[in-house]
Fold:
Amino acid sequence: MSEQPTEIKLHQTSRMLEITFSDDACFQLPYELLRVYSPSADVSGHGPGQEVLQVGKKHVGVSSAMPAGSYAMQINFDDGHETGLYTWEYLYKLGKNQALLWQDYLDRLEAAGGSREPLR
Structure:
């Protein structure tokens, strides 16, 4: 993939990462989506079928985000999750497939009897 981000904005009130790429594609990615699809081994596992369903992330926030070289960014969440590098290619994929990925997450959550709401 040759597309590079030209602009990245964190919107803390709406909990969205807005990213524009060099091909003018612009995506608004909810923090919750970024968290539940984290590319870290804690979430995605070490191979297909080893994914760990994330629950209770509806109100997750981003505490910081910083570049990782020229190919990715490190996103740190306020629930303590700080592993996984979000490559530009991965963020683009999340943006292009956001509706499908979100519905898949909701379906898996329902099947597992999980909730987006944090445990109290």
